[in-house]
Amino acid sequence: MRVALLTEGARPHPDRGAGAWCDRLAEGLPEHDFELYLLTGPAGLGSAARLSPAWQGAHDLALWGRRPRGRAPGTLRRRQYARAYEELVRALVLPGERAGFGAGLYRLAALAREDEGTLPAFLGSAHARRVLERTWRLPGADTSAGQPLVRDVLVAADLLEQCLRPLSAPWYGTGPGGLGGADLCHVVGGGPAALPALVARHLHGVPFVVTEHGLHLREQYLGFPPRADGGAGAESEERQARDECRSDDRRHRVRAPGGERASHEAPYRWPVRALLLSFFRALTEETYRQAAILTPGSAHDQQWQRRCGADPARTRVVYEGTPAVDRPAAGPEPERPTLVWAGALEPGRDTELVLHAFARVRAELPAARLVVHGQETAPGYLAHCAAVAERLGVAVAVDFAGRPGSLAEAWQSGTVVVFSALSQRSPRLLADAMLSGRAVVSTDVGVAREVVGPTGLLVPARDPRALAGACLALLRDEERRSRLGLAGRLRAQERFAVEPVIGVFREIYLELVSQYPAFPGGGGVGEGNRAPRPFARPAEYWLADGARGRDDRDSRDGRDDREASAGPADRADPADPEPGGGGAGAPDGRSAGRRGRARRDGGAAGPGPPLAVGRPGGRRSGRGGAAGPRLGGARPGRLAPLTPARRTPVRSRSLFFSPPGRPRPRFVEGRPR
């Protein structure tokens, strides 16, 4: 099958490290054709020769670059764009109109598909800014307790244009390179990368899977806007794990109009941040609502997705596989008992807790050392930690080693690995430490209990006494330390191996294709001179002689129903000597014509007597005082009394299946005709 993989900021190039998650997925499923759809920065995808051979093709769109050129829409078209854009913005700023986000989004996508290149030009025009400003300042709008200024409107309009730029991508056709011709889409990372999958789902019914190893919406709430150069997706695990030792230095920063970052690196004002958070929240809820299956990277992320409206029945936890499971365990322990800590030097990692706990450890073990690996991300925090160590009297035994060359070297330098974060969102760093074979002590927050389990020691957060006690228990007991380290390595190898992840997604792909067998964009054998595609038609289609046989039977059934619905009074009237000729009152056949017209107009059929309609003034319609045509062919008037003598006989239907081409037997008054 053809799988379209959509991600943001990924670089699936083998020469950048040990290989990316997206690369491993495509290489592990060679029976499927993978095409990469990438949202990049101004630099684009680069040379196609650097792509992994697993990709059948690659398509990129500059998401954070300068706005693409395009012609502005005409006057009438601009009004249609303005109405759809206003509906979208109203859903973002008015709490009572949240449900209109999807309608406005899909309307903008439909307009962008009809007019190629006009959507970015409209979103960057003064007319769109006026729509945004007028809607944003409506009474009751959610502006986070701050009135938007003119500069806020300019910045927000530019950021919304960048976020909505995937709607104008040339990817939504059914031909080669189009998402409409794919069997399914796989979104990696969420956020704006889910927009093409939503549009393909809306236009062509293509199902999509969403894989999130770090929730995009949670990062937005924590203050991590998307990077200008694209930082998520398919970098090597070694590089991504090292990035855990430092925080994103682009926190709360805006980009200048056109995609380039502002030179002053100014932070967002609260109205802009509230608008962006509302957009990403609405986009996440729509993505979770339309996705066929969600595959979070941990049960902790699964709880976040459920709070955002994800269906638990369509959610499966799939851990992020890493090639580090094949890495050999760390070598011999250092001679002196050493605690090693790795992470970003910021208050959220709570390095002060480790320093206070180490002061208690050193009081019991004077030969103990503490090695801190990490890069300063909060200005002045490194100096603050050094001052705390000096005040506690352990500065001579604390080594601030900076950013490590590799994580394997960092774990090699310690006897026990310590984690003291206030929120452990990603399992990547914990799993890498467990794969080294060193015993792990961590605060019981986030994914720590799920990843470490019974193979390590968990302590409450912000409790230096409990952390010191756990470290002392492992430093004094070599046999327990070795047993926990080996158990942790085996647990990490079992949960984070690459092969089980590949097998899970193979099953998910086949399950989705079996549930979504027929797409409007797909064709059958011989339709439009296109090659036959598997699963283009459901099994019931071929069991019923295809489209032609189905249409013939439908027309035949409709003709049988119309003939059977006509009673014996219409087939052989007492006043007519011949059923097919003219009656006594109409020798020229006018009565037969009237009966034919009444029959074409649709007569009522059923076990009860038909309704007779009288003409205005009490005169009954029909010939010789008899009941006239049924309700379908009568002229408007009041209801006349029913005639008991002219009842429609009960029409029996065949209870067995007739082969195609042979009409089913019809029964009139109990006798086969």
From TrEMBL:
InterPro entries named among the record's database cross-references: DUF3492
Region (Disordered): 226-263, 540-673
Gene3D superfamilies: Glycogen Phosphorylase B
Biased segments, Gly residues type: 623-635
Domain (DUF3492) ranges: 1-312
GO molecular function, one term: glycosyltransferase activity
UniProt xrefs under PANTHER family: BLL3647 PROTEIN, GLYCOSYLTRANSFERASE
Protein name: D-inositol 3-phosphate glycosyltransferase
